[in-house]
Amino acid sequence: MPVLKHVQKVWTTFLEAGGFDAQALSGLKLVSASKGFIKCELDVAQIHMNRLGGCHGGLLSSIVDIGGSLAIAAENMHATGVSTDLNVSFVSGAKLGDKLIINSRCDKIGGTLAYTSVEITANGKVVVLGRHTKYVRLAHLSNAELQQRISSEE
C-alpha cells in the first residue's frame, strides 16, 4: 500500500474514534507522505484560538502529538504507540485564517521507542518546533497478537 494511503487510513481511524482529535483537528489535511515523513496543513479557525486572539498552545501541542504519530504510521506501522515525552518550543504565533504547514519526521524507530520531530510553520515563519517520543513495543504486534496479549492479561 502506498505510504500516503496507509497514513490516511490510520488518520481516519483516529477521527472515527471521536474524542479530541475529531473535534479539534478534523480539518487537518494530509498533503504528502513518504517513508517516515508526512506533510499536513490546517487552516486556523475560531475553534483553534486562545483568549488573546492567537492560535492556542494546546492545539499546537496536539499537532506535535498527532504529527509524530502519523510520521510513525509512515514507517508502515498500523498502531502508533503511546506518548512518553512531548517537547514543544513556541517560536512565534499564528492567527485566525493562517494556514499551518506541518512537517513531521520519524527520526528513529526501534523495538521499544520511536523518536519524531515536528515543525509547524505559518506565513513562511516557524511557529513551533516539537519532539515526540513514543513507546511502540506493542505497536509492532499484529492485531491478533495484541488481542491475545490483552486477553491473557485480563
TrEMBL record:
Question: Which ranges carry the Thioesterase domain?
Answer: 53-125
- Which family, according to the similarity comment? Belongs to the thioesterase PaaI family.
Name of the protein in its database record: Thioesterase domain-containing protein
One Pfam entry for this protein is: 4HBT
- In the record, what terms sit under GO molecular function? fatty acyl-CoA hydrolase activity
Q: What InterPro entries does the database record attribute to this sequence?
A: ACOT13, HotDog_dom_sf, PAAI_dom, Thioestr_dom
Q: Does the keyword Magnesium apply?
A: no
The record lists the lineage as: Eukaryota, Fungi, Fungi incertae sedis, Mucoromycota, Mortierellomycotina
Q: Which UniProt keywords apply?
A: Hydrolase
- Keyword Hydrolase tagged: yes
